[in-house]
Design brief:
The chain is mainly α and 69 residues long. It is 61% helix and 9% strand. The chain has one domain. A two-stranded antiparallel sheet has the order 1-2. 4% of the residues are buried.
Length: 69
Amino acid sequence: MNERIREFAIQSGSMEWGDSVIPATMNIEKFAELIVRECIEQVKDFYQEDRFDCFNAAERIKEHFGVDL
């Protein structure tokens, strides 16, 4: 699990159990909000670097979260 996503899960109420995160008590709306906010920050940073286009923004988000599509 990507460390940032793990942090979001914990901030949303999930419990840590050793190396695992147990989402039984997770506030899913809070979890989704944290992810969306992080995506917005990634795109804003990219835009400020004056290299913005949709493809590059998508690639930056994929890399940030360690997602393969």
